[in-house]
Structure formats: structure tokens, C-alpha cells
Amino acid sequence: MMQSPYSLRTGIYPEIDPDRLTGSLAGKNVLITGSGRGIGREIALAMARAGANVCVTARTSSQVEETKAEIVSLGLDGKVIGIVANVLKLDDQERLVREFREQLGPVDVLVCNAGSNIFQPFHLTNATDWWDIMELNVRAPVELTRLVLPEMRERNQAVIIYTSSRAAKADLPWTTAYNCAKTSITRFAGTLQVELDQVQRIEKGVDNNISVFSIHPGEIETNLHETAFPERTKREAPYVIEHMNKIGAKRPHFEAALPAWTCVWLSSGKGSDLKGKFVDCTLDVGEQAKEARGAVKT
């Protein structure tokens, strides 16, 4: 494997230090899907600490209420609301956006974090399970974007972040649907950025100020890992579990605060040089941005 030119980061480091980002999102309205637990929950907490008004949303009411209560307990200036919604259902998406606007106003930052994955060889994966992963990781964020983008274009100011994965850049076995999904959403983000840069100038007569990113959050241990190995994998393909455990044993421990505060950094405008790009949260974003600035200049 080729060594990265950027410094490896596993937790908070100076570029994304919360103390430096305090107040950077004051007054911004942030919607984070899949924010009832795991990485999404950490993103919601970080956004709130940065001064944002935050909407916690997930399918499970108890998770939404727990995350909302944790943010409220911090005693911050920003507002926090919770909306239970299943982003796989278009009606729920429409209600989510409508209630968000009624309670907070327009969406300034959209973080599409809801997702799922299983580790299973393709020949053992049924069609329903395979396409369910594609639906949640691709169709759901794309359709939610479709709902909020018109208002973002009118205001010409917004940030959209899609939780992708290193799977978008590598041929990882046992996760064909997930790899396809994350590759798709990564290319969607990049292509949407190129389109917006052109269409805002052509149709609105302004330089585009909507930034779109896809991120690799790092291999963070979350509750999703508890259901990552279906019974059929355990029964018919135990070698998959053995393989993944070997990989996991060699991997550094990445803190959930790493992608959370990277999202704050990107949302604050500090990551504008990386708009449209795949941002690896495990690599120093300051160094990535510096190289991107150099590439633009040349």
C-alpha cells in the first residue's frame, strides 16, 4: 500500500481543535441524519458545541431523545430539536424538512450520515439485503438533498456533507453493496459540486457558495458493528469474520471526535479548498487543504 503524504490522525489535533472552532457555527441550522447514536451522535454534539442550532434525527425515538437530552444538558446557546424519521421513506423526509424549517429555519448544513453495512460474500447475499444497503447509503441522501437544495441555491450559502468510506477508494471484499454505495455517493458529491459551480453562475449570476464534501470518518467502532455479521455469514462464511478481525487488529484506534470535529471544520468554511473532494478524516485536513490550494494555483 502506498504511504500517504499526509500525517495520520486518530483523534483531536490542532487543525480541528474544538477550542479553535468554538462559535464558528453560531446561528447555523444543522440537520444530521443517523444522529441518534455512533458517529452521527458525536457530530451532533460537536456541531452544538460549535454554536449551531442542531436537529437530531433517527428512526428510533429513544435514541433521538437521548442525544437531544445530552446536548441540552451542556447548557449551550444554540437550539436543539429532535425529529423521528425514517430517511428511507420519502414522506418522512418531506416531513423532516418541513418540521426542521418550522422550528429552526432554512438548512444551512446538511450531514447525511445514516447508513448500514454487512460483511458477507456476494454469492451469499440475497437481492433484498444488497439493495437495501444501496437504498440507505445512496438513494436516501440523494433524495434528501433534492428536497433542501432549491432553498440552498436561492440563498447561495450552504454546506452538504456525505458520510462515505475508504470503501469508495478500494476493492474491499465481503462488502460489494457498501463499496458500490459509497463509491456512488462520493462521485455524486463531486459531480454535484461541479454542477453547482456552473449553474449558480449561469442561472443566478453569482459565484457558487455551496460546498459539498464526502468524508471517510475512519474505522470507528459503533453499534453498527454488532449487526455487521449476519447469521448466514457466521454459519457459512466464518472466514469473513476471521479476515475482518485480523484487519481490525492491525488498525489504529480512531476516536469518534475525529470525524465529528472534521465536519465542524468543513462546515465552518475552513475547508473550502476541499469542496467537491473526498476528505479522509484520518489524514490531516490542514495538509490536504494546503495541497488543494497549491493544485488550484498551478
TrEMBL record:
Superkingdom field: Eukaryota
GO molecular-function term, one example from the UniProt record: oxidoreductase activity
PROSITE patterns registered for this protein in UniProt: ADH_SHORT
Alphabetized UniProt keyword annotations: NADP, Oxidoreductase
Pfam families: adh_short
InterPro entries: NAD(P)-bd_dom_sf, Sc_DH/Rdtase_CS, SDR_fam
Recorded GO CC terms: membrane
Similarity comment text for this entry: Belongs to the short-chain dehydrogenases/reductases (SDR) family.
Function: Putative oxidoreductase.
PANTHER family: DEHYDROGENASE/REDUCTASE SDR FAMILY MEMBER 7B, DEHYDROGENASE_REDUCTASE SDR FAMILY MEMBER 7B
Name assigned to this protein: Peroxisomal short-chain alcohol dehydrogenase
